[in-house]
Every structure is written in structure tokens, then in C-alpha cells.
Amino acid sequence: MQVGSTEMMIVMQERAGQDDVDRILELLDGAGARGYVSTGDLVTVIGIMGERDVIAGLPLEAYPGVDKVLPILRPYKLVSREFRHSDSIIAVGGTSLGGGHVALIAGPCSVESREQLLDAARIAREGGATMLRGGAFKPRTSPYAFQGLGVEGLEILAEAREASGLPIVTELMDPRHLEAVAKYSDVIQIGARNMQNFQLLSAVGEVDRPVLLKRGLAATIDELLMAAEYIVKEGNSNVILCERGIRTFETATRNTLDISAVPIIKQRSHLPVVVDPSHAAGKVDLVEPLSLAAVAAGADGLMIEMHPTPETALSDGAQSLDPAQFEAVAVRIREIVAWAGRQMG
Ligand code: PEP
Ligand code: MN
Predict the structure, then answer these.
(1) DSSP state, 131?
(2) What are the structural domain ranges in the chain?
(3) C-beta of residue 275 within 8 angstroms of C-beta of residue 302
(4) Is the pLDDT of residue 203 over 70?
(5) What integer pLDDT is reported at residue 52 of this predicted model?
(6) What is the second-level CATH architecture of the domain 90-344?
(7) Ligand 1 pocket, CB under 6 A
(8) Which of 110, 132, 276, 314 has most ligand 1 atoms within 8 Å of CB, for mutation?
(9) Exposed site from 87, 140, 247, 315, fewest CB < 10 Å?
(10) Does domain 5-71 have CATH number 1.10.10.10?
(11) What does pLDDT average to over the chain?
């Protein structure tokens, strides 16, 4: 298929049926274009990607069930609020996030050993986490720092899922590991340093696994949304965005949590947004206030680093909560989620 841009969307009538949608998809297919169906509560919308001139020549408005054909004005199309008005809700294992469902993703920065991760999984579950995180492939600033256990780490994660029942979130850094990471994980994380690794984004767009996409260290909100578009364009619409702090002149924190990114993303996109206060702050004592602020601002989830013994952590110990701290923060998070009229998981 040619590389085109999804400039247009077809808004179906409320009474349109699946046969009407199928007829349009067939028409688009025959014209070498691709249709992306978004089923809302009331109406179905079909985004179109293809050659602009070819699409302009199609008699779309004459087709049964079509209400109107509109341009999508934002630079990102399928992830925009214009394309889909209602919040996307992403199901992961038995839990959800988005549209009033708040996720608490907790676990160590890195999988270090079987014992460490099984311990972390138990603490996460007892504290009310809805998912377990842990990196097996680690993007480290220094090539001499611990790089992760690789496939062995993935196997340990899978064992922790069995033991705890919590779905697994783990990072993919290289398309060569896609098959293994997709096999063992429930959510594939794309790290901040890879937010604009476009081949990696397209690769995860082709698999049937939700993707948690972290905002780049120096990326604008629109650049994050364009990166998400790379994934959704390939057919994987289950993308979770993550604000994890950006580089500013401030040195009191590791990064600056851009709290305004949360409501701005919600205005511009239907995708859920999660906040990672751990990498934003870099400090344990800031995790609670930033978590509460994130939920109050409308975040659909939190991703928090927690370690059974942070003082021995091979990465990010200074920002990792210990079990008692995690338990206490999780209580406060549940309170604010209830205050916000939303629910955990
Ligand atoms: C992580 O979540 O472990 C991580 C490396 O985060 P980031 O990509 O946001 O730096
Ligand atoms: Mn980390």
C-alpha cells in the first residue's frame, strides 16, 4: 500500500449497520486505501488512509449509512479527539484503563533475580497494584551499567504473572526482541529514549499487544501524539501514553513532571494517559505528591517504581519506594481515585 495520510473521516449515521461499514471498507480496499474503524457509543467513524486524489474521487457520501465525510485537521489523525470523541478504554488481562478506570502499575525498574521479582509482585498485589512492571532490556545511559537480564528476565516476569495474577508491563528496545517481548508481556513499553524510533513504533503497531509509549525526554506533546500515530496507523489502536517528566533547567528533580500534559493530551486525544512520577522526580519522597496531582489532573494511571530492598537496586534505587512506602502511597492513591469519582482497574 502506498504511504498516504489519513486526511478524512467518514461519520456513519446512527442507524448504519455492519454491512454498510463493510461496503465502505471494500470500496476503500479496491481503491488501494485503508479504512480504520472506530466504534463509538452512538456512531461509527471510519478514518481513511490513502492517496488524497484517489479518495477525493470516491463517491463516499452516496453510500448507504454515510452521514458525512469530514477532514481531520490535526497533524495526528487516528489518535485525535476529532476522530474519536469518547475515551479509549484499554483492556489488559482482567483490568482496564481509560474512561474512568485507573491503573496502578508498580514494580522494580529492572528485573534483577527471580526472588527479587516474585517478592516485588507479591508486594505490588498486596498493595493493590493492577499491573506489574519490570525491565528485562534496560536503556542505560552508561554502557557499563546493568543492562538487564534479557530473555531470562522475561521468563521471570511470566512466572511472576502466574504467581500474582498481575499483567506484565516490560520494555522493548529492539525490534529483534519483539517476538519474545510480545510473547511474555501483556503490555509492551516503549521507553522515552525510543519515542521517535519510528521503525520500532511501526513494528509494535503490527502486534496484538497494548503499547505503553513514554514521552521523550525533550519531546513536545504533539510529537508524542505523532509517535502514537505511527503505532495506531499500523493497526494497533491500543496505545497508552505516558508522561514521565521532561528535561528543563530545573535541577531539584531528575526531570520536570509536566502535569499540564495530562489535561492537554486528554483534550487532543482519546488515548489514555499514565503518569510515571518515579522517573519524573527521581526521588522517593516526591512520588506521593506527584501521584496525587496526576490523578487529580485526570491521569488514567500511574507507573511507580517499587523495590523490595531499594538500597540494593541495580538501577533507580533512589526513586524506588520500599514495600512500606508503596503500601502507604497506594492507600492515598485509592483515596484520590475515589474522590475523583473513578475506579481502580
Ligand atoms: C523505565 O520505565 O524503566 C524507563 C527506563 O523509563 P524512561 O524510558 O521513561 O526513562
Ligand atoms: Mn527506571
Answers:
(1) E
(2) 5-71, 90-344
(3) yes
(4) yes
(5) 86
(6) Alpha-Beta Barrel (3.20)
(7) 109, 135, 139, 191-193, 214, 244, 279
(8) 276
(9) 247
(10) no
(11) 96
